[in-house]
Amino acid sequence: MNRTFFIILISIFLFIGINTVFYFTIFNQQLDFQTDLLARQTRLCGSTIEQGGMNFENELNAIPFADNFIDLFNNEEIREHGVDNLQKLYAKYSELINKITVLDNENNVYSLILDRKGDFVTDYYESQEQTLLHERDELIYDQEKYSLSIPDFDENGMVRSNIVVEINFTRFANSIFDQYRLENTLWQWMVTNEGVLIATAENDLNIPSNDLKRIGSDIIKGEESSMVHSIDVDGTATRVVSVYYPIRLVKRDLGIVFSIKTDLFLRSIFRKIAIISVFSLALIALLLYIHFNVFRIKSETVRRKRVFEVSLIKTLDSLPLGIILSEPNGAIHVMNTTAREWIMKDPKDSPENKSMHDLDLEVQSGGTDDALYTRAFGPGKVIKFQNDSIIRQLYSREWSTEINQVKTNIILLLDISEFEKSRNLEKIAHLAKTELLESMSHEIAGPVNQLRDAVDILEKEGLKGKVKETALILKKTTDLLSNQITSILDFATQDAEKVIMEEIPFFLKDEINLALQPFRSVAAQTNTSIITKIRDDIPDRLVGDPFRLRQILYNLVESSIEQTRGGRVLLSAEAIEHHDEYLVIQFQIDDTGSGLPQNIIDKFVNGQGNTFDLSGKGFEENELRIAIAYQYIKLSRGQLWIESPSAISTDPDQPGWAPARRRTSSQWILKKPRGPGS
Description:
CATH topology of the domain at 501-671: Heat Shock Protein 90
Distance between the termini: 55 Å
Number of strands: 25
Radius of gyration: 49 Å
CATH superfamily of the domain at 501-671: Histidine kinase-like ATPase, C-terminal domain
Shape: flat
Strand content: 25-35%
Oligomer: single chain
Strand order of the largest sheet: 3-2-1-6-5-4
């Protein structure tokens, strides 16, 4: 930084400092002037209100001492004269008085009010109960109303009657405030010493409670003060200067407040500040223009841009990823060294003036698990490039953006050749193992079938006695052996196909229907009902391994249907935990079949027991079905538990539904899909 720059910088701060000092000086001067003006008005208004209140109290106190007012209810002439005095008082202070009531110690009551037409309405009656008479002047608060009570004494100094005047402080204050009203500029309001707003001169004012409490506290102390704050006027926040003055009206400590908009004196300040700021900014702009030469700035920017581009290209060349920048029509702008080595026949050739369409890139589909790469690298495509004897498989991702206001495609290439080789070897090994298992299945099944045929021939010979019993045992043992061998081979096949758990989008209802579809015809033949119940809080579109989910449900439902003939099988799903990115779903299968022995339940649920005390045919197959499902549930970090018989009881509202004899429950963690359509 040179000397000129420091001079400009100092000038900027100097201008800002001068403007700030000037603003606060003018603001404080105007604030003091407006505060002093408002203080004079509040004192004048307060004196008017207090004087009116004192005159009212003096005239009210004079009435009981005129013409034996004590005989108001006994002497007709005194009554007329006393009523006339009360009506004159009421008419003179109609803004302050709501009602006048005279009570004596003989249950007599006189009431005087002024109706809406301006006519007096009087009433004499005898009260059923004697009202308590006050022995001195008192301001009474009852049922949210204030009343001033004046006693009348007889010649013995005993209280004979009370004049009770209901006071309307709000209306009286508003009538005085009308004399000082200045529309949309000046507002008057009255506050009690408890900080309660009771009069606003018919304006819709909303005062912050903290400000009201502060004013109420100062009223109690008898202090006059001011504040700058914000109030709501007819629903609009307005910045005002408020001056308050404590008064005493009819034995009550109150405070009157005058508020004026700060805009009245801020406008002139802003106008002056704006003029100075415009000239200041113009001068600063001129100095900056002189110092920073336009051409020098431009050349420096170009130089820095070129340096940045060279550094960026070097960085891209050092990356182990292929990066290509091209136009939407395929014309190549930039291709780093890695990309040239991967997809160009001669890496030394320049990619300039070439197009992506000129490259011998073959897009592959079907043979490669694109979903796996999508999860690892994001959405893209698999391409193949062959140069002489070298075959390279790449995964390509593409984005569109703008560089220097030119639409550009960014292509990212990742080499997946070695990974594809490993996957192919794994598939070959898997196929070999599957073929071996199938061959073993046929070799074992042959002798077992021959043994079963031999037993069938013996049964047709009409055997009797122990020989017949031995033949039956042999047949049953043969069936059990055949089922056991089939289940073991099925389980081994499932284990051979075990791979990493997938995470791809799928639709839950579709997978459940696919798992149940093979059992529809069998269920219809055995008069067994299959019912599904999926809670509404589970989104249909999820992310996980739909194939493993389908295999789990298939094996568990098959196990239930095998033991349920002429009953019902209920498959339900419920979300028991909701999180931002995943949820835990509990799948539950209830059936009305014969249930499972406790030792099988302990083996898979509690980890207890190594042998099985089976009492009926088919339990061995069920054990392996549950074992297969249990294996996949463990792979998915889920849980499995079985209840047989379950705690479900018969529902009397659903005739024909028997108590469930087995409940199989499992929990899975599935992710919620991201992005559009999720």
